[in-house]
Amino acid sequence: MTIWPFRYAGLKVLSLGLALLLWMLISGDETVERGLRVPLELQQFPPGLELLGEPPTLVDVRLRGSSDTLSRLGPGDIVAVLDLRAARPGRRLFQLAPEQVRTPFGVEVVQVTPASVAIVFESSATARLPVVPSVEGEPAAGYVIGAVTTDPSTVEVSGPASLVKRATEALTETVSIAGASDHVLENVAVGLDYPSLRLKSPRTAAVKVEILPGPRERVLRIRPVHLRHLEANLTARAIPPSVDVVVRGTSEGLSRLDPDDVVTFVDLDSLGAGEYTLSVQVDDFSGAGVVRVDPPAVQVQITSARD
Questions:
Q1: Which of 24, 82, 151, 231 could pair covalently with 206 via S-S, beta carbons 3.0-4.6 A apart?
Q2: Tens-place pLDDT, residues 168-201
Q3: What is the 3 state secondary structure string of 99-123?
Q4: DSSP 44-55
């Protein structure tokens, strides 16, 4: 049989060129090493166990491969994996070998740091804890705080047995009652002091704070009515010139109240000569709240200073 060496010469030249090109590409892409910090993934977590404390979430790996391959690595391409199926309560030490790191084709793991990871396990436990509302501020003068309730009043929590045993209450976000003169109702988040514990449900509670009138009243008699903002060329007088003020508050607050701190007045701003019926107002003061003014209005006669 006759062999023709130049038969299909074009295909042979093309194959030789491709082979040469491939060799140049491979030989030109040198092998390098690179360090990366990668996530540590915990798998096959045994039921009935809890982590006590926080294991590391990242480990350092030393990778070897072509420069081009390593430069194309993206988040999640390299993951270190710990198999926990054999875990049991107590402090356990798990080895981290290069074989436990998932990598794309062409990437070799040279080293993992740390080479071992200590993890503490505890048995799971659950408990029902009371929800304790957090309230800040003071109600309006003359009002007091009544009953404070939450709905639900208890929540179920779970986590490591030692922490569940130590926990005594679940807390709410702070509810402000500053200046309130009526009941306050807010839906707020419920949380725990221990981050390793978790709520089963619900994660919010309705906190109701009753705001009630103070239990005692006091009458401040013959408080002079002050005339404010009277124009310079006018004179005025109030009929009657004084009023009684009824205040309400706690026994302690009323006992500390100085009658001179309760100032009544009528506002004459922009009023000219004439007769007016004006409501009596009371300046703000601390320790109690105004229930009523008797009489609630006075007659004011305004005359020109020339008259």
A1: 151
A2: 999 999 999 999 989 999 999 999 988 889 998 8
A3: HHEECCCCCEEEEEECCEEEEEEEE
A4: SPPTTEEESS--
